[in-house]
Amino acid sequence: MSSLTTELLIKYDYVRGRTKRTRKSGETEWTISDADKDDIDAWDYILGYDGPSDGSTFGEYSNKIKYYIYDNKTQLDLDVAWVGELEGIDVGTMYSEGMHKDWENYLIDQINLIDSIILPDFERVTNPEDAHIEIAYVPNLPGKLAGQYEADISWSTTYDDNNEAINTASFTKSIFSFKERTSTNGYDARNLTDYPALNDITAATIVHEFIHAIGLDHPGGDPTSTLTNSNETVMSYNWLPYGPLTPTLKLKDQEALAEIWGKEDAYSFPSQITDGTKVAEVNSSYVSDSKGFASISGSTPVTVTSYEIGKETTLDSIKDYDGNLHAGDNLAATASSYKYQGMLDVNGDGVFETIFTNKSSKRWVTAKVDSTTGQIDFDDNGAGGGTRVVGIYADPLIAEGENNGGYLSDGVTPAPANFGVSDADRYVVVNGETIDRLALNSQVRFQNDLEIDNLEAKHSGDYDSDGIHEVYWKTADGTAYLRSLMHADGNIRYANYQSVDQMKEYLTANGDDSVITDITS
After folding, report:
1. Distance between CA 221 and CA 233 in Å, rounded?
2. For the chain, first and last CA: distance in Å?
């Protein structure tokens, strides 16, 4: 969405402006005057920072950032009276509670991620009095308050033998509290694949408040700023659902933290496609679907300008996972036979891909489009990439047939056969009818439909909320619907054909009947 720089988009708060003024970090005796002391000096003092006083480079931190997680019921002194005054409710006494293990694991994993990015290290302590940051799950946070970070730093002054003032900093309070949320801004929460007891909205609240504690404020100081949303920074209140994916720091969040604290040499920021092929313009009016669904006929983060749906185009450099051009297909017609189907989020990561089918090679392609630059990197085909000729899968019913003499486990229904099967094993006679077991292989049928240009991409989503994203295709002749199940990296794991009744029954049973029209149209 926004092309604003990190400095303008993210406002430094608790340790504001670390790179914006002359640092006191070289003054190891801490004899600076009261007028000069601020929160950056407090952090530098407490963490034992030793570096150049002009802030030209980062130095070293001799102490760790220590955090404590409340794991039982404890009365807390939280500044929440303002909520009662604002909403006209009785606030009462605030108590922490022990959090679910999934919640704690998520929190620790996010802290470990931050630890890998910034120069200071983190350490979990067993006593809140030893912590720089206390973390509390507080289910009775009042009213609409979902989470809050609050801190107080105190400075004390002693004098040395020469009557020079020596200032010492300490935290008198530094705590973030949060409660569980099940909806926000009209969106319902969805539980995470990696942390099943934790939903995406609560998780985003947790990481949001934690990085408040180490320096970031809301975008431009305004959490509801229309300049950005939660796809660009976890500090925004403009919520776009993560679905079953794990909410985590976005690129701008990571860059801002690195500017405050310094970046570990070994860490690489998530890449943005800036040297690829531009195929689209940013769609500033895009609004994400509340369930993470996407439709060929629906809104997308970018508007493709280089390809026209239903028209063939040339992709000169598209490769498969292993780097083989056109997946090794060297037919003359292949490069110019990529038919553009439209855009879908094929693996549920919030990033949309252009989809192409090829009747010459009998394969299909996904090409990830950067939502900020509108570019495709056609070399992004390997591990972690999203631009490739999609792989071929093995129909899982093949193995069942091999174990049952060519039939499924019921002993009656012919099982699909694999490529290269002998004629003796390929054909079986059932009730006087010869059945071609190879034709029952969904991968074979998939490729046959590609060869005759009989497939139209329609919709994507995790319809049964099992953490596996799916892409729905419609056969152009209207005889069936293809449901392809995708790996997290965007490659295909399996596909099966459904009749119109089977498709409707599956979606209706999962409460997704509202998308049927998008698939059948």
Report:
1. 13
2. 30
Positive or negative CA dihedral for 11, 13, 16, 19? negative
Q: What is the pLDDT of residues 90-105, one digit of tens each?
A: 999 999 999 999 999 9
Q: Are 148 and 80 in contact (CB under 8 A)?
A: yes
Residues 115 and 122 sit within 8 Å (Cβ to Cβ): yes
Q: For residue 26, what are the β-bridge partners?
A: none
218, 212 contact by CB (below 8 A): no
Residue tagged 């994400």 (tokens): 288
Q: Tell me how many degrees the CA angle 274-233-270 measures, rounded to the nearest 5.
A: 40
C-alpha atoms less than 13 angstroms from C-alpha of 367 in its C-beta half-sphere: 30
Identify the H or E element spanning 434: strand 433-436
Looking up tokens 């509202």, which residue turns up?
A: 514
Residue 456: beta bridge partners?
474
pLDDT digit string, tens, across residues 150-189: 988 888 888 878 887 777 888 888 999 999 999 998 888 9
Per-residue burial over 173-187, b if 16 or more Cβ lie within 10 Å, else e, is ebbbbbbbbeebeeb
Both tokens assigned to 89:
């409710």
In SS3 terms, 15-77 reads as CCCCCCCCCCCCCCCCCCCCCCCCHHHHHHHHCCEECCCCCCCCCEECCCEEEEECCCCEEEC
What is the pTM assigned to this prediction? Answer: 0.60
Write the pLDDT tens digit of every residue in 54-64.
Answer: 556 678 899 99
